[in-house]
Amino acid sequence: MFEVGDKIVYPNHGAGTIVGIEEKEVLGETKKYYIMKLPIGEMKVMIPLDNVEDIGIREIIDSERVEDVIKVLEQEKSEMSQNWNRRYRSNTEKIKTGDIFEVAEVVRNLTLRDMEKGLSTGEKKMLSNCRQILISELVLAKDESEEEVQEQLDELFADRDVEEE
Length: 165
What we know:
Blueprint: E1 7-10, E2 14-26, E3 29-37, E4 44-48, H1 52-55, E5 58-59, H2 63-74, H3 84-96, H4 100-117, H5 121-142, H6 146-158
Antiparallel strand pairs: 1-2, 1-5, 2-3, 3-4
């Protein structure tokens, strides 16, 4: 059970801080919800307490694990399908896990592919969403601003040499 003030990750949405626990009636059913505030966009999300485990809610990584995430981002692109549809499905599965290392891998692979040959509209949207998920957790784990973390990510990729496949 999480408490107000805990920093958690909501797979597919990103990381945030629990700012409240409230009872709400939705569709005639009263349930308890975590109210999570995301550091990006000032968005609030309601998470039903009764299926926190099913959703895969977890605590954010600690500052030591941040370096491991950076190492994933610095690695070479992993083998991806040439078929954009298969690639999209595979990346969607990785994002759904809520695992920051899987999310970092998707960000790395799509960023490098974009630098090489560009991305389809769907993959551009996926990369944008995935970056937001990654940045939201790094902002909380590193206790830095969104701008600082975005800049660090951009710098990581700015110096990369990419080769056409």
